[in-house]
Amino acid sequence: MSRENLVFQEIEEFSKNLFPGERITLHRPVFGGNEKNYLAECIDSNFVSSVGARVTEFEKGIAAYCGAKFAIATVNGTAALHIAMVMAGVSRGDEVITQALTFIATCNAISYIDAEAVFVDVDRETLGMSPDALRAFLVENAELKDGRAYNRKTGKKFAACVPMHTFGHPCRIDEIADVCVEFGIPLVEDSAESLGSYYKGKHTGTFGLLGAFSFNGNKIITTGGGGMIITDDPEIAARAKHITTTAKIPHPYEFVHDQVGYNYRLPNLNAALGCAQLEQLAGFVEVKRELAEKYGRFFDEKAISFVREPAGATSNYWLNAIILESREERDAFLKYSNDRGVMTRPIWRMMTELEMFKHCQHDGLENSLWLEDRVVNIPSSVPMSEIGA
Ligand SMILES: Cc1ncc(COP(=O)(O)O)c(C=O)c1O
Fold it and tell me: Is the pTM of this model over 0.90?
């Protein structure tokens, strides 16, 4: 057996031991609390759709957890991102600065507005947008008019900057926020993956004008499908609620809508699940941090680079990740582990390699390319054995 295969086998065995008796997925949900009770209450009360007490309760719960003033629940994280960008003022023909190493939803949301993505590089340590790359890109490409930044090459407005906290690890978001202020660019955080993650003691998603979360089935807590916008701005919060609920003017029986709105409100059924999940979030974060600790010690012994929370961050360790030596080693490991029932996945294909975003302006993306070749996600669920199941 080659040295490579020997190490792969040890990783396989280690992962299997972390999840005794389980099918080893990348991230499956845990329903260990009041989920069934709260769902039954919804069904018994007939409030299963977008009106219901659980939606408001879930919004208040997320806002309180994150230390945000307002939260607006949506049908999924992509919808939350879409509306967050609209609220930040992004409109047709604008440009939005983001990272190329992200999940497709970040860029899809930009495209729904008929805006154009522009990509800057990430940091190797955080896997998220690099404030240094952002600043360098803007110094070279931005021209300021009336306090707003425009792209010198295209003449278009940089209408928002959307960094993403990759796998739950906070990027250097305070420095990114400073660059955004300097260049007059609204900051919207794609914090879909980082509920439970803090940077310098402040929850991710609260550093800019708006943040967006996802409660998809693979996230740290799930509502089946769902999302949330957070903001401290009361006027933005009111507009976001209005536009996500078909822009209907409140009236006891008349249907009057004052703009084209979206049917984006999270149903009560999903919110009920969310309320039950939120009660368990602190415990999930604790167990996931312990899991990461075990992985970290193991990979240190094997001299394999394990992605740890960046300096200043307290991460939810949503998805654990390792950095292998090369694309070849990455591919060999993916094949080896998936063939043996240990689910592993490569980091996303870069947006600039996808047909829809190939033409988009970028800064060379040196670190993104390097990471794309090497990063693999490894099994990261809360082990059932840890919750007494
Ligand atoms: C980085 C990122 N952005 C946005 C989303 C979109 O969330 P959703 O799947 O709930 O639409 C996700 C997750 O799926 C994500 O990982």
Answer: yes
Length of the chain: 389
C-alpha–C-alpha distance, residues 273 and 294, integer Å: 30
Name the packing angle between helices 268-278 and 53-66 (round to 10°).
Answer: 40
**Among the atoms of ligand 1, which is closest to the Cα of residue 216?**
10
Q: Is 102 in the pocket of ligand 1 (CB under 6 A)?
A: yes
Q: Which two tokens stand for residue 15?
A: 């992962």
Q: Which two tokens stand for residue 46?
A: 């007939």
Q: How far is CA 275 from the centre of its chain?
A: 19
Q: Identify which of 262, 343, 374, 375 has the alpha carbon closest to the alpha carbon of residue 26.
A: 343
Task: Among 102, 213, 216, name the best residue to mutate to test ligand 1's pocket (greatest count of ligand atoms within 8 A of Cβ).
Answer: 216
State which H helix or E strand residue 150 sits in: strand 148-151
pLDDT at position 1 is 59
**Ligand 1 geometric centre to CA of 1 (Å):** 40
Residue 92 sits at φ, ψ, to 5 deg, of: -50, 130
Q: What is the pLDDT of residue 3?
A: 65
State whether the beta carbon of 94 lies less than 6 angstroms from ligand 1.
no
Mean of pLDDT over the chain? 97
Mean pLDDT for the stretch of residues 364-380? 98
192 lines ligand 1 (CB under 6 A): yes
DSSP-derived pairing of the beta strands 227-231 and 70-74: antiparallel
Q: What is the pLDDT of residues 347-358, one digit of tens each?
A: 999 999 999 999
Rg (alpha carbons) of the chain, rounded to whole number: 21
Pocket-testing residue among 85, 98, 101, 103, ligand 1, by greatest number of atoms within 8 A of Cβ: 103
The phi and psi torsions of 102 (rounded to 5 degrees) equal -155, 170
